[in-house]
Amino acid sequence: MATPDSRDHTIIQLPEAISINLQAVRIGICGLGTVGSGTFNVLRENAGEIAARAQAPVLVVHVGARRDNPACDLTGVRVSRDIFAVATDPEVDVLVELIGGTTVARELIETAIRAGKHVVTANKALIAEFGNELFALAAEYNVAVRYEAAVAGGIPIIKALREGLAGNRIEWLAGIINGTGNFILSEMRDHGREFADVLAEAQALGYAEADPTFDVEGIDAAHKLVILASLAFGIPLQFSSVYTEGITGVTPQDLRYAEELGYRIKHLGIAKQGDRGVELRVHPTLIPADRLLANVNGVKNAVLVEGSAVGSTLYYGAGAGGKPTASAVVADLVDLARDLSAGQISRVPSLSFCHESLQDLPIVPMAEVETSWYLRMEADDRPGVLSRIATIFSDQGISIEALIQKAPQAGQTRVPLIVLTNRAPQGKVDIAVQQIEELDSVAGRVTRIRVEVLDG
Ligand SMILES: NC(=O)c1ccc[n+]([C@@H]2O[C@H](COP(=O)([O-])OP(=O)(O)OC[C@H]3O[C@@H](n4cnc5c(N)ncnc54)[C@H](O)[C@@H]3O)[C@@H](O)[C@H]2O)c1
Ligand SMILES: N[C@@H](CCO)C(=O)O
Ligand code: NA
């Protein structure tokens, strides 16, 4: 590490209390898009507080970017078009990877680790899919890989699970963990806006992934859920085990009917551990409208964690966006700077549990996962139809909590019928739905959305 006065770019005003003789932590940022530019600017704007907390100036010395970003004043900072020049720069202590994706980003991080650099990343796809390998490589080279920004943007949920809740057995967690998806559902519900129109706005605001199907098909939430589940239960990262359903099938009609029934539809990531193993699932979910999670709107995220000792705790804040995500990246940098000054970079294991203690618990098959269900169908409005449907449910041992028949829509002979069931395994519901879809008196497919009450 260099002393700040040995560099020509030390133009940041630091409080006098921070000794100028302290060694600076030298940062290389790769990727100067939404999060990269946010991180660069937060480090500049809050340099005094950051240095006071880190007990050392945290200085960006090298930026790797395809092009400059007008939002960032790069005067005095080395800039390379080749991001690998940052990963091998002997003057860089910590590489911040903010390019995204799992190919070049993986190679970049591995190069940095092999060059003895610590890494901070916001890349949930990379951690979820290749985190096991990256953490092992980092351990081999005695460097840290930090990823607070990878889950729920600015909310310090990784910190909470790795450290704050370390005294608990985590029973389950449920979260709104994709800002773009929550923004879309909120705008559709509150302002009747079109899905595609809101998605375009989320992209313009810098919330969406480079490929927005990751947001709307639930893949991004699945990446994040896998990370949360590993931290919560001490299991290796296993992206392929997550059941993933997005929000593209949620209609304005269902948002409205849910509301009428006293529920809201939210896209949730849910991880639960029980006697039969671990449930890992991402899907739209009806939750009672009076729950805190039901009232998390727009780009906000929230994660509800049920711990054996603490009970329920809830973490809320901005789930996407440049500055909020930068807040998490910079928090990792401050943490790392503190660890570096204490000479203890692996004080907290990457996945909270010691690597040797990670346990590959069985994943509960979806057919066995029990929830309540919202089922909507179009049925003939004539005697006997309701009792046929009710019999199909009772034959599968599924009890009906509510059955509502709506008025027919203009020009329609069939009526929308909504069934709310009590808790039942998905396998039973699959059979009942198939039998209902085969009835002549029911048209088309049955819309199915899970219902969770999220009781602590
Ligand atoms: N945007 C958010 O709100 C948010 C929140 C949390 C995490 N993330 C994650 O942060 C990462 C960055 O996201 P973003 O929204 O800032 O994306 P972005 O597209 O705004 O920025 C990425 C930048 O990296 C650059 N880049 C990509 N490949 C490069 C290469 N090979 N060489 C040089 N530059 C390259 C691009 O030109 C772009 O400027 C992603 O992993 C994303 O999942 C984003
Ligand atoms: N695309 C992501 C960014 C934050 O991880 C989201 O909308 O939540
Ligand atoms: Na976070």
Automatic annotation (TrEMBL):
GO terms for biological process: methionine biosynthetic process; threonine biosynthetic process. Residues 374-451 form the ACT domain. The keyword Amino-acid biosynthesis applies. Gene3D superfamilies: 3.30.70.260, Dihydrodipicolinate Reductase, domain 2, NAD(P)-binding Rossmann-like Domain. It comes from the Bacteria. NADP(+) binds at C30, G31, L32, G33, T34, V35, G36, S37. InterPro entries: ACT-like_dom_sf, ACT_dom, Asp/hSer_DH_NAD-bd, HDH, HDH_cat, HDH_CS, NAD(P)-bd_dom_sf. Pathway: Amino-acid biosynthesis; L-methionine biosynthesis via de novo pathway; L-homoserine from L-aspartate: step 3/3; Amino-acid biosynthesis; L-threonine biosynthesis; L-threonine from L-aspartate: step 3/5. L-homoserine binds at E209. NADPH binds at K124. Its EC number is 1.1.1.3. It is an enzyme of class 1 (oxidoreductase). It catalyses: L-homoserine + NAD(+) = L-aspartate 4-semialdehyde + NADH + H(+). CDD domains: ACT_HSDH-Hom. Keywords: Amino-acid biosynthesis, Methionine biosynthesis, NADP, Oxidoreductase, Threonine biosynthesis. The keyword Metal-binding does not apply. GO terms for molecular function: homoserine dehydrogenase activity; NADP binding. The active site is at K224 (proton donor). Belongs to the homoserine dehydrogenase family. NCBIfam families: PRK06349.1. This is Homoserine dehydrogenase.
